[in-house]
Input
Amino acid sequence: EALSPTFKVSIPTGISKLDAALTGGLDKGKMGLLIGSAGFGKSTFSTCIASHASTCRCEANNYEGFKVLQIYFEDDNVDIARKHFSKITQTEARMLTREPSLTEQIKEQLNNYPDKEMMHRNLRLKRFNTGTKKASDIEKFIKKCRQNGFNPDLVIIDYFECLLPEKSGYATDSEWSREAVTMRKLENMAKDLNIAIWIPTQGNKGSITSPDVVTMDQAGGSIRKVQICQVVISIARSLDDIDKNKATLAVLKNRSGKSGEIFEGIRFNNGTSTISCDEVETFSSALSYFEKAEEVEENKYKEQMLLTRQLREQIESQEFTTTDF
Output
């Protein structure tokens, strides 16, 4: 069984470099954690993956797409629907209903979308109120979906901090121990129900100011979150990156393959809910990435020193009188 070509079913994210690093995507039965600073685009990431997986034709799903359950807490149903519409039409969500003539064009694009029926068949959106549902409640809901004829291959929970923590059962029932129990519950759910689970989580304060790569120690809350997950990735976005619709993605942990790869310059557009790898610089390890970063900083320093010396020489070569001032 371990050597069978069908020993695993991988669900692609649609982010080509990430899928290649994960040898196809996130496997069913496993859980992936996404770390990012506040406001980096958790819903964009969730929507991109949900949209791609539900319309992805491959042998593993008999070319009919994967069944996807997208769960969210902070956004409402209209917000998420607009994100999907913006991804399909490549029109920023804020522009969808700005002009009546444009809105009619958008409706026509959506009606003529080639994968409209497939997405309608495969994608389920579900909103819960923040802090009202535990991981065990999510499991009950998934089982209810199965009873009603919808058997998800992929579940996306946006995001970890919105879940009501499970009780740990320990005498010292701390916030960290509850987070660990919640994470273990999600891990077991992925295995028992044979589903893939993606769950974003907030980074700590250090992740907000991180200019390069968000690392595992910058995940907020309990360290058990990154210890338990089979796959851990991160998204880093500086203010300049946000302005240019760019991001740096790092594969921090991958139990089934190679980890440490970093992809700089990924297109990450919150407006159209699009993530792509058209112009990406790939680094095979964090070491090579930071070596390049140090080289860039060193070159900047040398340029500054050169400009300073040239300015000093220019000043010293001139004769000044009091009238020049």
Summary: The chain has a mean pLDDT of 88. DSSP finds eleven helices and twelve strands in the chain.
